[in-house]
Amino acid sequence: MNIDDSPGSGQTGQIASGRLREASRHFGFSIFFGLFKPLGKQFGKHLPRWSLRHAKRSLICMLALSVLALLVFAWVSARDALLASARTQIASDLVMHSQRLGKAAPNAIQGNPAAFRQLEQSRQAINNELEILLSGGEWQGRSIFAADDRLGAQIEAVRKTWSKSDKTAAQILAMEKELTGFRTTLKTLNTINPVLLELSEQIASLLAQYGSSPREVAAAGQLVMLTQRLGKSANEFMTPEGINQDTAFMLGKDANTFRDIITGFTEGSAVLRLPPISNPDARGRLGELQSVFEKYRRELSGILSNLGKFISAKEAERAVFQENEPLRERLFALQESYRGLEQEGDWTHWAVGGFATLSLLFALALAWLLLHESRLEAAEAQARRELAEQQQRKAMQEEEAARRSEEHTSELQSRLHLVC
């Protein structure tokens, strides 16, 4: 008998197909844990052998959860990075405003209106930004959280240093009207002074030309000298160290002497031993000089009457200058602290890295599992093809055997018929 006709030959394909189906049905987490040796060996002993479909579904769920966790922690990490960047920007802004305030204070003392705007803006910005860093709040559309204990103590130290400059800056701002008026008055004095000088020189020239006494000529020369000294003293008020009692005293003394000489030339003065000027030209110039000087004297009295306020403002400006450097150093230290935190990052960076690695491992495991599934399906298909071929050969063999049997029976019947 042909080996293909044996009963076991029909069962060969069935056995192969059955083995493949059994492998697929009981293919389990031992495959998955095979990727993560030696952990797979340890846990594989205690887990049931799950089906391939169950393992694939579990891997897909774990991959989805790890990707979701990755996205959540990535969002948290990005939010924390933006927060750290915003805090560093605020600290940098504080340094800039401290420098701006230190430059604006001297200009504000000189009555510069733009300097008052800069001084006010920087003062408000420093107060607001220190409060935001310490207690939290909104800054340029971003939410800033309150500082922790370590940074809170550092910010409090900055605020303590800033409080002195804050008070002195407020003191300067409170005298804005007087200081801007002071600047305008000084400009007026500097405008009038050349007129006084020209008239004084004309009077001195006329007195010398018409043969006046030496004392009269000397007094006229003194008017010229006083005019020059008044202009110099007024210009000293525009310098950083010019606002002081000595300068004010010299201004007042020179103005009084100038007035006494004009009175002596006009009405005569026994004290100065000056007779009234009789020359018509000189007397006419003297009348003009007296009129211009009265205007000059009114403007000057406005400065001298508010001298105490100007000196207080100057002392406040010096205090701002003295405190500006310690404040700037503390702000630089605060800025470096925030930069260090920004560069260090926090635990969310590690979480993002961990879940990214886990997602990659789950994706590789799923790809490996799908590859094995496709191989199993290919092997099972091959087994089914072999089984179909075996069944086809068996059917052909049975058909051939039946045909031969039929021919043999026909031949026997023919022989029997001939015998009969």
What does this structure look like?
It is a single chain. This protein is an all-alpha fold and about 425 residues long. It is about 85% helix and about 0% strand. It has helices at about 10-25, 30-35, 40-45, 50-110, 115-135, 150-175, 175-210, 215-235, 245-265, 280-305, 305-345, 345-420; strands at about 135-140, 140-145. A two-stranded antiparallel ribbon has the order 1-2. Helix 4 packs antiparallel against helix 5 (about 115-135) and helix 7 runs antiparallel to helix 10.
The level of helicity is: over 70%
What's the total count of β strands?
Answer: 2
Q: Main beta sheet: strand number and arrangement?
A: 2 strands, antiparallel
Average pLDDT taken over every residue: 80
Strand content: under 5%
Structural class: mainly alpha
Separation of the first and last Cα atoms: 34 Å
Outline of the structure:
The chain has helices at about 10-25, 30-35, 40-45, 50-110, 115-135, 150-175, 175-210, 215-235, 245-265, 280-305, 305-345, 345-420; strands at about 135-140, 140-145. The protein is mainly alpha-helical and about 425 residues long. Strands 1-2 form a two-stranded antiparallel sheet.
Key phrases:
disordered N terminus, 12 helices, 2 strands, mainly alpha
Set down the secondary structure blueprint.
Layout: H1 12-25, H2 29-34, H3 39-44, H4 52-109, H5 113-135, E1 137-139, E2 142-144, H6 149-174, H7 176-209, H8 214-236, H9 245-267, H10 280-305, H11 307-344, H12 347-419
